[in-house]
Amino acid sequence: MAVSRRATLAAGGIAAGASLLTALVMAPLVVGTAAAAVGGCSAIAAIQSQWGSGTAGGEIVTVTVANTSTQAATRWTVTWAATGQVVSAWNATVSVSGGTATAVDAVYNGSLAPGASTTFGMQLAGTGAAPAMSCANDAVPPTSGSPSVTSSAGADVRVTDADAGHTVTLLVGQTLLVSLPATYRPITAKGSGLSLLSSSGGFPTGQPAAARYRAVAPGSIDLSSQTDYTCLHTTPPCAVPIALWAVHVQVVDVSHSGGQTVTTTTADNGRALSLRVGDTLVVSLPSQYDPPPSNTGGVLVQRDVSGGYPTNQPLVVHYVAAAPGQADVTTNTDYPCDHDPTPCPGPIMRWTIHVTVTA
Fold first, then answer.
1. pLDDT, averaged across the chain
2. Which residues are the signal sequence here (predicted)?
C-alpha cells in the first residue's frame, strides 16, 4: 500500500445556517465563551443567541479556530463534550459519537497561516454555557535539528488500484486519497465514518479517477469502482474484461484513551512489545534507515513520519495502536551508493520489532 501524508458541506446547509444566524443575531451579543489552546491550535466558542430554556430552547454558537503555531496548518479538528443535539452546522463538518462532538475543517478553511483564524457555526438544541473545546491541527512547531512532518499529495493515506481487496484503518481526523486510472468509474462509498471532500475524473472523462475523504467518526466503509470502456456501450459491445476494485476502510477513535507512549530505538531490534489499544508507539532511528511501510493490517495506524533516508535527518515515526492483533514494524538501512548501477558492497542492516496489541 502506498502511504503518505479534508469535508464538503452541502450548499443548502451553509445557506440555511447563514440565514438562521442572520435572523436570530442581527447584532451579535456574546453571552458565553469557552476557549482552549493546545498544541498549536486554539478554539474559542461564543454563544451568539439563545431562546427558550432548557431542552425546549436552543442556541447559536460560533467557534473561532486559530493557528497559534509558528508554522502553517492545512487542517484542524475541534472536540468537546456533547451535551445536546447538533441541529445544523456551517463551515465545518460536525459529528457526535459516544458523547463527544467533533468538528473538522471544510475543504476551503483548513489552511491557516501562523496567527490566522477561521470560524464555524452551529445551532444546538437546548440552552447552556458555551462548551469547553479542545483543538488540534497539523502545524509542526520547529525544533532545532528536526524536520517537519512529511506530506505527500496532501493526504495521510493513499490507495491505488494495486490495493484492491485491502483493509485500511484510519484515525478520526485523518485523510484518505483514492487514485485510480482513468479507465475506472468514479469511486463510490457505502457505510459511515468518511466524509467526501472532493471527487474528480474517472470514465468517461479521460482523467484519472480520484476521491479525497476525511475520517470524521468511527465507522466502517466500503469503497468501490470498476473499469469501463466506450466500446462496452456500443452495439454489439466489445469483449473487454471488467476489473472490479474495492477497499474496506475502518475508522477508529482512540484520541481519548489516555494510553502510554513507548519509544523504540536501534537497541530494540528484534524486541517483542506489548501495547494496549490507544497506546502510542514511537520509532526513533538514525537517518540512514528507510521510513517503514505503514501497512500493519489495521493493528497499528501510522500517524506521521519525519526524516529517514534520503533526508539526512533522524527517522521518527509515530504509530497509534488501533485494534487488537499482532504486527511487525520493519525497515532497512539505505545509502545513495546502493542505488548506483554497481551498488556498493556495504551490508544492509534490517530492523524489526514485533508488536502485540490487546484491548
1. 79
2. none
C-alpha angle 130-111-287 in degrees, rounded to nearest 5: 115
Is pTM beyond 0.85? Reply is no
Distance CA 306, CA 282 (A): 11
Residues 48-75 have a mean pLDDT of 86
Supply 332's cell numbers: 532497512
What 46-51 contacts at long range (C-beta under 8 Å, 24+ apart), as own/partner pairs, is 46/130, 47/129, 47/130, 48/21, 48/24, 48/121, 49/24, 49/25, 50/127, 51/24, 51/127
Instruction: Give dist(CA 68, CA 72) in Å, integer.
Output: 9
One-letter amino acid for residue 66 of the chain: A
Strands (E), 99-229: 100-105, 117-125, 133-137, 157-159, 167-171, 175-180, 188-191, 194-200, 209-215, 219-226
Question: For residue range 113-125, what is the model confidence (pLDDT) as tens digits?
Answer: 888 899 998 888 8
Looking at residue 225, its pLDDT comes to 95
Taken in order of first residue, the domains within the chain and their CATH numbers are: 11-137 (2.60.40.290), 157-252 (2.60.40.2020), 261-358 (2.60.40.2020)
Task: Summarize the chain as % helix, strand, coil (round to 5).
Answer: 10, 45, 45
Instruction: Count CB-CB contacts under 10 A for residue 169.
Output: 24
b/e sequence 72-110, b meaning 16+ C-beta within 10 Å:
bbbbbbbbbebebebebbbbbbbbebeebbbbbbbbebb
Q: Give the C-alpha distances (Å, rounded to integers) separating 210 from 168, 179, 245, 251, 339.
A: 17, 5, 13, 20, 32
* Model confidence at 249: pLDDT above 50: yes
Instruction: Say if residues 279 and 301 touch (Cβ distance below 8 Å).
Output: no
Q: Given this model, what pLDDT does residue 255 score?
A: 61
Unique residue bearing C-alpha cell 496567527: 115
